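pasting input
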Amino acid sequence: MSHLIVFLAIAVLFVIVLLVWALRTEISGASKGAVAKGSNIAERPPLRALAERIFAARDWEFVSAQTEPAIQRTFLQERRNVALSWLRQIRKQAAELMGFHRRAVRGNIELKPGMEMRLVANYLAFLFLCGILHVLIRLRGPFQTRKMADYAIGVSDRLRALSGQLLAGADPVLLSRVNAARTDKSS
Amino acid sequence: MFSSNMGAHIKRVEVEEAIQDIQNRTLAGISGDVGRLICLASTRDYNTGKYHHEGLASNFSEEVAGAALAACHLEVFRQLTLSSLEDLAGQLERYVLSSCAHPTEVIEAWEKLEPYRVTIPMECDPLSAEIFFSNIRIALAILRSRREHGPQDLQSS
């Protein structure tokens, strides 16, 4: 039993160290647009702007001051559903980005294993955050989870930037081919 | 290559001019973004999703007029989607009061028939549409409640 506890403690410590290492990655500004150019991410919904609306405490302050309890309950339920949709969307975008990255680096002999590891660790941290956020939105509603949503957006931006940094030197023809294949598949 | 770039640039300039025209003439006379959204959505064919405006098409071209109307529609929709619930409720109230019908009738029809569902632009993403529909539903409930109780009653209760 004590062996199991020690093993679990080491595993948790390892995960924490991995996440801290991954999340402290400095991203160069020049590479931030690389993936957006290659993967059409820029055409997606403005998730940051929408998050500011969905998680805005101002809306709840207005509803709680101006309306009766029945409308307040309906509003909380509606906003919770919208926040969960937003969360699904941000996860979907990250998964698409990782899929795009995987296809783009497949067969690339100039892989940077350290950076790729950071990308994977960031993605795992992102999925972990999304899981916690999902539970918190269900339990406490969207207005108590604003900071965490901001943090999830930050990690998602970091993912994009890391992938951009890794693909900055990749052949643009290959990137557009991968992107075209992805677009054909999704349409 | 050069001529196709030049052609795209000219078209973009024309679309910009057409947008200015819509903003200065058509939309300037409408008070509130909800009214503007409905006006722009009504210039679209339900079956094809294409926009048509007689005057604009005669000043520019059918294609330029359609692109300009689509751009204005998307812009007004974005503004409404990203505005606070308080602002949206205010805009909706202004629209309801500007209608010829009795406000209670308008609110009831909007709650039952949900005509706002056909006012979203074709290019909008599903999440923005979901936020917009949700906020309109809540804004309608607030307006109905205001008409039944009055804002003062609600604040004191």
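fyi The interface with chain A takes residues 81-82, 84-86, 89, 125, 127-128, 130-131, 134, 137-138, 141-142, 145, 149, 151, 154-155, 157 of chain B (CB under 8 Å).
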